[in-house]
Design goal:
Elements lengths: L13 E2 L14 E8 L2 E8 L21 H13 L9 H9 L2 E6 L7 H14 L2 E6 L5 H7 L6 E10 L2 E7 L21 H7 L12 E5 H7 L2 E6 L6 E9 L17 E6 L4 E9 L11 E6 L24 E8 L4 E8 L6 E9 L3 E5 L5 E9 L18 E5 L7 E9 L4 E8 L12 E4 L4 E2 L1 E9 L4 E8 L6 E9 L4 E4 L8 E9 L18 E5 L4 E8 L9 E9 L2 E8 L10 E2 L3 E3 L5 E8 L6 E9 L4 E5 L2
Antiparallel strand pairs: 1-2, 2-3, 4-9, 5-6, 5-9, 6-7, 7-8, 10-16, 11-15, 11-17, 12-14, 12-16, 13-15, 18-26, 19-25, 19-27, 20-24, 20-26, 21-22, 21-23, 21-25, 28-36, 29-35, 29-37, 30-33, 30-34, 30-36, 31-32, 31-35
């Protein structure tokens, strides 16, 4: 590339230099090489001592002309990489270190591989001098490799790309300076080389007797016989760049963030002036030479307003998890659109460090995605008494509930609630107005919800929470009796307080009573107000006590409209109404009275369970709570 485009790519980074700008011999044997390592240009100082074998032969890269430049570049590179026992990587990763040019890997055998588009990019890039190209073979049998003149798992430099006489051809060099391709368009091919083609390429296979590892090969054969194409793009093609360096420590989020992105490193990307082509390069820092077992990915989300993404969902780009040092995403960014970039790992095994670069034709901004200013973690569990199931369950109100209160002097605020469980249960968050115990699910009172029940992790976004207001957060599993511990994290833009809400009847004695309405006989309430025909329960108490009654129909095929009321009862006559559930309602959670105080010495009370319709055929459960011991007896009509 230095010779072809009359500019220095590699040699410009070797010091000392002469007046002509080229590296020159240093009698002191000290040299400095500039390498692009872990997102920055770094100075690597070396001497001119090179490894040799017992026979005095150099055991490194060298030039037969006596130029030690190649040997010095290799020594500096391997000093950074850990030594001459470096296990190797791939050509674009190595060229990124040597030149700072953007690495891109194209896997030929991938289903998404577009041969025509790849050829056009390779051809145009080489013609413009904006790309360095290498192609790499994969594993292949020794007999097959020998018959084709190829080396298994080996990288070749691409010197030229030409489209002539209807053929797409590459001029390729084996860095071993020997062993060349023997297939189509090789020196051994007696069929493909027409006079017009030889004239166009100034090439005659009959004169190619000296094997220097240089050969022509058609692109179709590359796609058939090679595994990967490695490209390095000149970053100066892009007028604007932005970069950040960051660490991902072990204490940041779960070991496997398959459902939970809340602790993943995330950044907001904005193209500020017009629609632009933006390339985003995620580079994992190399700290020591070892096998790369870290599978990383970069996901791009739109329609986020640049906010953090807390769980995997539909994305503009879902990155593939790969154990390479670099991940490149090419994006057409719309003006003013705020994108969220999410860095991900398949499984964390150690702290990792990264550089994230955005390169664009127009000004681009790259900043850390905002996190809530105030956060509070709450832990709890679903147990036998608190795993109430979803909103269709009669026991939904038994789920853990929490009150969030926004101070009166706080601004209008937004935020996020995340719920993580120890077991892979489907879970949900629902937020209601009021800040009191939710005993019945009404959509009109619902402020926000996490949506469909999701396995093990879910999130609920909160918008425009009003100062001086309170809200109730209910966390639930899809089915009742799904037991698990959980962690609830609440993050808001303003100060807030959070506190658990006591269950219905907390601290009170509870009696569970069963009954049944029979069509036309014991289900008459509603317009007839024939309470003497409804199921009734006599309550006797020796002192004043607070009471509460809840009526449910958990086994009804169709939920009936029901009511439960508590009356004073004197000489078989209904007296003053003490408490009522109000309008007849058919909620899965049933109906309940408010807590009321009843009781005078010798006074009796009647609990009436009534249905609106005459033809109801359903059983019911009455839960009667009292502060002190009471006697409850069913009455029969």
């Amino acid at each position: 590339m230095d010779h072809r485009f009359k500019r220095q790519l590699i040699t410009q980074h070797v010091y000392p230099k002469g007046r002509n700008g080229m590296p020159e011999f240093n009698p002191a044997g000290k040299y400095m090489v500039k390498l692009f390592v872990n997102g920055l240009w770094r100075r690597v100082v070396i001497d001119d001592l090179l490894p040799v074998g017992e026979t005095g032969k150099l055991l490194c890269t060298y030039s037969v002309t006596g130029d030690i430049g190649q040997s010095l570049m290799e020594k500096a590179f391997l000093k950074v990489m850990g030594g001459y026992d470096f296990p190797g990587s791939n050509a674009s990763t190595d060229l990124h270190v040597l030149t700072g040019w953007i690495p891109e890997h194209v896997f030929v055998q991938d289903q998404a591989f577009d041969a025509e588009r790849t050829w056009t990019r390779m051809h145009d890039g080489l013609e413009q001098g904006s790309v360095l190209l290498t192609i790499a073979t994969g594993e292949m049998g020794s007999d097959v490799a020998a018959s084709l003149g190829l080396v298994p798992s080996h990288a070749y430099a691409v010197l030229d790309a030409r489209e002539v006489c209807g053929h797409q051809l590459l001029r390729v060099k084996n860095p071993w300076n020997s062993l060349r391709w023997t297939g189509a368009f090789s020196h051994a091919d007696q069929i493909s080389w027409t006079p017009d083609l030889m004239r166009a390429l100034d090439y005659d296979p009959k004169t190619e007797h000296d094997d220097q590892g240089i050969f022509w090969i058609d692109f179709a054969s590359v796609c058939h016989r090679f595994d990967a194409i490695h490209l390095n793009w000149n970053p100066r093609v892009f007028a604007h760049q932005a970069s950040v360096h960051f660490s991902w420590n072990m204490d940041m989020g779960p070991r496997q963030a398959l459902h939970d992105f809340s602790a993943n490193p995330q950044y907001t990307l904005v193209a500020e002036h017009g629609t632009a082509e933006v390339w985003i390069l995620l580079s994992k820092h190399l700290l020591k030479t070892e096998e790369n077992v870290d599978f990383i990915a970069l996901h791009v989300y739109d329609n986020t307003n640049g906010r953090r993404v807390y769980e995997p969902r539909a994305a503009l780009h879902i990155g593939e998890y790969v154990n390479t040092q670099h991940v490149l995403v090419q994006l057409t960014a719309r003006q003013g659109e705020q994108y969220t970039l999410v860095v991900a790992q398949r499984e964390k095994t150690k702290p990792l460090h990264f550089t994230l670069r955005a390169l664009s034709s127009t000004p681009v901004r790259l900043v850390q995605a905002p996190v809530p200013t105030y956060c509070e973690d709450v832990t709890g569990q679903w147990g036998s008494a608190s795993a109430g199931g979803n909103t269709a369950s009669p026991r939904y109100m038994d789920n853990p509930q929490f009150q969030i209160t926004i101070p009166p002097n706080a601004p209008l605020t937004s935020g996020i609630i995340t719920l993580e469980t120890a077991h892979k249960h489907p879970v949900n968050i629902r937020v209601f107005r009021g800040g009191f115990l939710v005993t019945r699910v009404l959509e009109i009172n619902t402020v926000a919800t996490s949506g469909k029940y999701r396995s093990q992790f879910c999130t609920c976004e909160l918008e425009a929470l009003e100062p001086g207001s309170s809200y109730t957060v209910v966390v639930s599993t899809f089915e009742p009796f799904m037991f698990s511990r959980f962690k609830l994290r609440i993050g808001l833009g303003s100060l807030f307080t959070v506190a658990p809400i006591a269950r219905e009847g907390a601290g009170m004695r509870m009696r569970e009573l069963h009954g049944k309405w029979m069509p036309g006989s014991e289900c008459v309430g509603g317009p007839d107000q024939s309470y003497h025909k409804c199921p009734r329960f006599l309550v006797r108490t020796e002192c004043e006590t607070r009471v509460l009654a809840r009526l449910q129909t958990p086994h009804a095929k169709s939920l009936p409209l029901v009511n439960v009321s508590v009356y004073e009862f004197d000489d078989a006559v209904l007296g003053t109404l003490c408490a009522s559930s109000g309008s007849y309602t058919n909620s899965p959670q049933g109906v309940a009275t408010r807590q009321s105080t009843i009781g005078r010495t010798g006074c009796e009370f009647l609990v009436v369970a009534s249905a609106w319709d005459h033809d109801v055929d359903a059983s019911f459960v009455l839960y009667f709570y009292s502060e002190h011991t009471v006697e409850v007896t069913p009455l029969f009509y």
